[in-house]
Amino acid sequence: MQPSEAKRFSMWNRGERKGESRREKAERGLLPAAFRPLPSQSADRAGYLMVLPYVIHTVIFIGYPLAFAFVLIFHRWNIYSPMKWVGLGNIKLLLIDPLIWRALGNTIFFLLIHIPLQLIIALGLAQLLNQKIRGRTFFRASYFLPVVISGIVVTILWQQLYAYETGLVNLALREINLPRVGWLTDPRIAMVSIAVMATWKNVGLYVVLFLVGLQAIPSHLYEAAELDGASSWQKFRLITVPMLNPTIMLVLVLSTINGFSLFIEPYVMTGGGPVSSTLSGILYLYKQAFFFGKMGYAATIGFFWALIIFMVVLIQRRVVETEAV
Amino acid sequence: MKRFLLYATLVVGAIIFLYPFVWMIAATLKPEPEIAGFHIIPRHLTFESYHFVFNKLPIIRGFVNSLFVSMIVTASVIIFGSMTGYALSRLRFRGRATVYNVALLTMMVPAQLTIIPLYTMIVGFGWVNSYLALIVPAMMSSYSSLLFRQFFLSIPQSLVEAAKLDGCSDWRILFSIFYPLSKPVITTVAILTFMGIWNDVLWPLMVIRDEQLMTMPLLVTLFAVGGGADARLGVQLAAATLLALPVIIAYIFLQRNLIESMASSGMKN
User: Fold this and answer.
1) Any chain A CB within 8 A of the CB of B112?
2) pLDDT band at residue A15 using 50, 70 and 90 as cut-offs
3) Are residues A45 and A79 in the same domain?
4) Chain A contacts of B255, Cβ < 8 Å?
């Protein structure tokens, strides 16, 4: 070993003292966790006692249901009579069930409207709020209000706004001499109406997220671009969007998960109709379990739905990452 | 001119988000034929919608149920979450890394996957139609435990050493030294947990059939779905307003905390 190498090697053992025991070294934080001596008994016991409730709870209420889900998938069961093994029956049924594919199609349609709307409005409002303005707190708070209000309140409210005869939206259309629209009764439009409502409810959260993201962009980037004579569009395209990439990813993932969790809105407003045009995966799962007592099939739908969410989020991540490069 | 456009857009935005709520509250005070209109001030003030709701629904009971369930769950998530967070950040014991990794993993398990097996389990326990079904499955949260862990890691170790020299047990260090220092994380966990439980409908819908045990959002949901309001708009809106009011009042006072907590929860993934 060359002397210089030996020196470099000894740097890894920074500050080692001759004849030092493992415990002494550990106390000075010099050993990686794996080589540290085991701690005294009392710390051990306090640690176990403190995590024990959490561990027990997690095993019972997450671990067991998770394992049991894989049992349920292969059975027919209405809870009250004994389980019946059906092998791959549920999965075969799912693959040819037009309604689950309808629900998936509806959800994707929902997301295709919801996500662009969400991104554009949230980013737009965040840009406006990120300037020197008075009353920023008030504006931010008012955009955020629907986020904290329970979904059922928003749903009942919008059901009234969308009502055919008495809804404010149609009343407004009449004021400008346009015909009424069946916002919740026209199968081509009902899902659009729900997507617009969901955007109204959630966009405030994304305004705040984008605002945090915008404030983290160092202003010297913009100043440098201005010196180079960049237009506002160029600044937006070449500085703001790339710098906001993590936030955009976050908004994508959150609104995707939101879309796949759609339940209360179609349940209250349309019952999944008209002609299944607003049926969502969770609503279908709920119906199979509680209207038809098919626990095995409902669990299969849940499994399928979880798988799809996972895949969609992975694809989104891949796309955003390649965009960034 | 540019400034004017900026403010005009912001104000229009605020109206779009606020006006429907104002209209909703106003509509509950109007007689039925007057509701289909844009005006806010009722021409004929009436409390009939509220009379109807209070007569038909055990709404006060629902409010108390919701409050009871949300408060117990929130307290439990804070106490057990901070214990787990403390152990994971400050104590060394065999299996600590495993517990930490499992906590991370469980956060990725989508609720859709476990909700049906969980329901069948609750049926097996005989917990349908009891507070237990609403409270016990929600009593701990991996996410909150990890939030506590993250926060506790930022508290200097020297404080712990000093307390240990004075003979403090780990329990006392957690509850009397760490707690006063942990207000931000406790607030965040409390708000997220409380709001999550307060607004949840799907789970109560599955496990509660007895009207006396229903949470407030469940009562209002079934009222809207089941046609209990006799298709009267004002009555449905009154039920919705009663459900929204506590949240709106809390929001007026805790607006900053609420926004920050919910935004930080968005940041988690």
Assistant:
1) yes
2) very low
3) yes
4) 137, 141, 144
Mutate to test the interface with B, among A132, A148, A301 (most CBs of B within 10 A): A148
Say yes or no: A171 and A125 in one domain: yes
Of B238, B117, B29, nearest to A296 by C-alpha is B117
Instruction: Test B244 with A153 for CB contact under 8 angstroms.
Output: yes
- ipTM of predicted assembly, 2 dp: 0.89
In the DSSP assignment, the letter for residue A39 is P
CB burial readout B78-91, b (16+ within 10 A) else e: bebbbbbbbbbbbb
Q: Does B225 lie at the interface with A, CB-CB under 8 angstroms?
A: yes
Tell me, yes or no, whether A82 and A95 share the same domain.
no
Local structure of A75: helix, strand or coil? strand
Residue B15 above 90 pLDDT?
yes
Contact B80 A305 (CB under 8 A): no
A85 and A97 co-located in one domain: no
**pLDDT value at A145 more than 90:** yes
User: CA–CA separation, A132 vs B145, rounded Å?
Assistant: 38
At B230, the pLDDT band (50, 70, 90 cuts) reads: low
Residues of A in contact with B137 (CB under 8 A): 61
CA angle B195, A54, B267 (to 5 degrees): 45
Nearest CA of chain B to the CA of A3: how many Å?
38
From chain B, the residues in CB contact with A66 under 8 A are 109, 113-114, 117
Q: Which residues of B touch A135 (CB under 8 A)?
A: 10
Residue with tokens 């004849």: A19
Does position A222 have pLDDT exceeding 90, yes or no? no
Residue A74 burial (CB count, 10 A)? 18
The residue of chain B nearest to residue A50, with distances taken between CA atoms, is: B83
Tell me how far CA of residue B44 lies from CA of A168, B34, B41, B269, in angstroms.
20, 9, 9, 51
CATH superfamily of B50-266: MetI-like (1.10.3720.10)
Distances (CA, A) of A282 to A89, A150, A248, B191, B215: 21, 18, 26, 26, 21
Q: Give me the phi and psi of A134, to 5 degrees please.
A: -85, 150
Residue-range definition of the domain harbouring residue A103: 91-324
Are A207 and A77 part of one and the same domain?
A: no
Q: How many domains does chain A have?
A: 2
Give chain B positions within 8 Å (CB) of A268: 221, 224-225
